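Quick one - first record:
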Amino acid sequence: MSKLGRYSADRKKITALTTTGTEIQVADCGTIFMLDGTDYSADVTHSLPHPNEAGKGWWCKFIVKTAVLDAGGDDCNIKIRGVGVSTFVDDLLLLQIHETAGAAGLTDVDADFILVKGETVGGSQLEFVCDGNKYYLLGSVTADGAVTVDT
């Protein structure tokens, strides 16, 4: 008996994130978030659920949709919320980001949040995977310094 629907076709959930900050929920597991900062008028913050709430196997991906995230230079922050609250917590990201322009890239074992700069070009992507305690981040960007971390 064959499977039907999105899972057998490996179709992904796609959601656009634009000028309003978003609290990404546990139910958003498996979503690809398309970042479109065309009309940013200030920096925007999107937040992930706390790893304890997200649980093992939770994942999402962010892809810059437009040619440049925001020509005006406003940035996109990706932070992690505390348990059951909207405040942010520290030291829950382990990351490796490859910068295709030739730099060594970014690595960090206890990052606090990710900053996707407004100058980041389309196709740059960040994928978050959770083990229930911490997020692991793998990314690829097309320019050195397009993504930075705060530790």
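second record:
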Amino acid sequence: MFHPTLASHQPRAYVINWPRVHKKWKCPVEGCPYQASTNANFHNHFMYRHPYDSIHLTNESLEPWDKCELCGLQCPLPTLRSHTESVTCSRGRITKRSRDIANKILQADVQVLTIDGTPIESVGSFRHLGRQETRTDSDWGALY
């Protein structure tokens, strides 16, 4: 299950003990159907699908790996150039940035503005100086 906002989710750390030889192992997050066949697949899965949680695979280290601050991937040396310049980190940064924007929009929807105690109605889009503005900060309305 993907957790849409950090505010609504308590981060969890999952520990997996598995032998070196295995076929596929199920994701430990309740309700997640994903199965991984390698440690790297599990780390990538957690970066994309369970970004606020962490995983510790006991067959690769004594302690859980740190998360990269740029992309969120748990790896042994997240600050090394070989990781930060990798395709995985680049794609993870894009996903993390999109997730952060979506979380800001969700949090903004929760806030209610009032005038003299009367709530103001929220709209999805409006015209401002002849340009179509949207709550998602998308230019599609203006292009259309």
